[in-house]
Amino acid sequence: IITHGRDGLLVPPQDPRALVQAIMSLTQSPDHTHQMRQAAIETARRYTFNKIADQVETYLQAVIDQHRSA
């Protein structure tokens, strides 16, 4: 879901040094941090429960319709 540098920062698991570097990069570039925050909000909005439920319902209805016409 996260695109590194666009709507978040990804670091390797259990790598505290990489985590510190990522956090420091946020403090050194407030404009980029603001842009990532805005992009993260938009990304999160695509994954609300209602949107995912609608996608699942649409998919299941297509499967049902396809089965009925077979």
Give a description of the structure.
The protein contains 3 helices and no strands. By secondary structure, the protein is mainly α.
Number of helices: 3
Intertermini distance: 35 Å
Strand content: under 5%
Rg on CA atoms, Å: 19 Å
Quickly list its features.
70 residues, mainly alpha, 3 helices
Please give the structural blueprint.
Blueprint: H1 16-28, H2 30-45, H3 49-69
What does this entry show, briefly?
With 70 residues, the protein is an all-alpha fold.
